Amino acid sequence: MQSQYLFIAIFAVVALALPAIGLAVAWALRPKKPNPIKNSTYECGMETIGETWVQFRAQYYLYALIFVVFDVEAAFIFPWAVAYNQLGLYALVEMILFVAILFGGLMYAWRKGALEWR
């Protein structure tokens, strides 16, 4: 029993150490030549006009989240549709439940007004 936990501990240490070592080596070997041009704000190759930090509407974030939800839904439904002939009634019920939960989320967002362009 102890050997199983030891294996997990070694795996966790290696999993944390490898990226840390890679980042440390990259930090040590990077070129360090800062100048005002590199530190300036870059926006589409043009100099910024006015305040660089502007408020971002949360509406765009909500559209992106809804897009990601339905994109993930498509990623789950496609393999299910490919293997539909080999699956039984249980898989059909599970997919109907999955789509119903996502449809409920869409209706919730719609009723809250998250989909209205203001």
Show the helix and strand layout.
Blueprint: H1 2-29, H2 36-39, H3 58-82, H4 89-112
Helix pairs in contact: 3-4
Structure description:
- The mean pLDDT is 83.
- With 118 residues, this protein is mostly helical.
- It has helices spanning 2-29, 36-39, 58-82, 89-112.
- The protein has one domain (2-112): Methane Monooxygenase Hydroxylase, Chain G, domain 1, CATH 1.20.58.
- The chain is built from four helices and no strands.
- It is flat.
Describe, in short, the structure shown:
This protein has 118 residues and is mainly alpha-helical.
What series of H and E elements makes up the topology? HHHH
* Class computed from helices, strands and strand pairing: mainly alpha
Low-confidence stretches: none
Largest sheet descriptor: none
By DSSP, the count of extended strands is 0
CATH level 1 name: Mainly Alpha
| Average pLDDT reading | 83
Q: What is the general shape?
A: flat
End-to-end separation in angstroms reads 59 Å
| Overall tally of domains | 1
Fraction of residues in β-strands: under 5%
